[in-house]
Amino acid sequence: MTGINRELSIDTKHVAKHLPDTPQMQKLLKQEGSVHVFNDRATMEMVAEAIIANGEFIGVIRGHERYGLYFPDPIGYRLDSNNSRIPLKYGEIKIKGDKYDVIPRTKPSR
After folding, report:
1. How does residue 91 score in pLDDT terms, banded at 50, 70 and 90?
2. DSSP conformation class of 21
């Protein structure tokens, strides 16, 4: 199945932790030792729109319906506590009910 054919809205409680230099991202970095963040909010919104229109169904993983899409250019990066950055070219949406969270990743969830 390609794309998501129903009404969804972004789960706003997860947005800030996927954007660079927000307090929520900094807190997650301190707790987890690494974070996956988008280049900026506009990129996050573009990725969400692209996945909703053309994303591939990955499956139901850890209780969330998931869709993803590879992008030709980096959409974000993985930052660790040593300030090491790994470019990310895969975007994933996880859906619970009628809300979604969009995440930059290295590859699809398993």
Report:
1. very high
2. T
- Quick one: pLDDT band at residue 109, thresholds 50, 70, 90? confident
Count the residues in the chain. 110
At 92-108, the pLDDT tens digits run: 999 999 999 999 999 98
d(CA 57, CA 36) in angstroms, rounded, equals 21
If you count DSSP H runs as helices and E runs as strands, how many of each does the chain have, helices first? 2, 8
**Which distant-in-sequence residues (6+ apart) come within 8 Å of 36 by Cβ?**
18, 76, 77, 78, 88, 103, 104, 105
Which strand (E) or helix (H) includes residue 59? strand 56-61
DSSP string, 60-71: EETTEEEEEEE-
Q: Which H or E run includes 92?
A: strand 90-96
Give CA torsion, residues 30, 31, 36, 41, to 10 deg.
Answer: -70
Q: 23-39: buried (b, 16+ CB within 10 Å) or exposed (e) per residue?
A: eebeebbeeeeebbbbb
